[in-house]
């Protein structure tokens, strides 16, 4: 993959000396400046799909876990598949399976889904400098298949100046296919497997998030917000009901970062 | 009515799935929609940019704190494999293998 590195010369605020291969996920300074021409064509979709494929296969492991958990929670294969096909939000779906008891706590499930997925609105906003130059149909359509993994790849792609406007769509299609396909496999197998703890399936969610954290680590500047998030989440988890500690931890870190910005 | 748990579609379950879909779609398009109408300062953007990582940490913290040495050890394996190989699938397999192994030992 060639990176056109000409357009990001003026980063006034950051001390980060980033290499192209890592940490390019969340550099706020780079988003406002670029005005390279943006395309939205079949070639972009292809590039996104192929780049994302290895990652999408990794997401598939996660989909298998979701399918198994869904079957154990009492969903049918059809219901689990429908959820993966329309919700397309791994963490929220797996957390929902933890909440999935009889009678269904509908409000808790929907609100927790909202809380966990609120990050998508920030991720979508981060795509704004590029996506506002697409037609509403192109931009909103692409956002429907946005997940953590293809968002990160797309940010890296767009920041490199390639101008591939349909990269999110292409990479999202790869994620969607693997996610839905793996859900079917996991849900079909999940009816057979007995105790998930015995096979380490219960550790999948944590393992995925640990891997994501390693990817999101952006050098020492990440340390303070992450410590704030960690401490806030652990304290809030003991005092606040439900899964709200997730949102609280994230918001506390963001608040501290806003205060720290000048320093 | 098919009741073998494969093709069954319970109306309430489908309703909850649709509700989850609606709120998720709102979060996915909402931020972008809002940003086109309001100005976001660089300061706020800096805050927003730490959110994904911070939320990941906020999910992990209590979960790992509730775990034991087997989970902590396996978490270390995931970090190590991910850091060295940058391959999610490999890191997941390593972590799950490690947690099964450490639990069997413990």
TrEMBL record, chain A:
Keywords for the protein's UniProt record, in alphabetical order: Cell membrane, Membrane, Transmembrane, Transmembrane helix, Transport
Q: Which residues cross the membrane?
A: 47-70, 82-100, 106-131, 165-193, 199-217, 224-246
How does the UniProt record describe the way this protein sits in the membrane? Multi-pass membrane protein
Comp. bias regions, Basic and acidic residues: 1-16
Biological process, per Gene Ontology? L-valine transmembrane transport
Tell me the domain of life: Archaea
What does UniProt give as GO cellular component?
plasma membrane
Location of the protein in the cell: Cell membrane
Pfam families membership: AzlC
Locate the region Disordered: 1-31
Q: Give the main location.
A: membrane
Keyword RNA-binding listed? The answer is no
Question: Has keyword Nucleus?
Answer: no
Q: Which family does it belong to?
A: Belongs to the AzlC family.
Q: What is this protein called?
A: 4-azaleucine resistance probable transporter AzlC
Q: Which organism is it from?
A: Natrinema hispanicum
TrEMBL record, chain B:
**Entry-linked InterPro entries:** Brnchd-chn_aa_trnsp_AzlD (IPR008407)
- Give the domain of life: Archaea
Alphabetized, the UniProt keywords read: Membrane, Transmembrane, Transmembrane helix
Q: Where are the transmembrane segments?
A: 12-35, 47-68, 88-105
Query: What is the name listed in the Swiss-Prot or TrEMBL entry for this protein?
Result: Uncharacterized membrane protein
Q: Which organism is it from?
A: Natrinema hispanicum
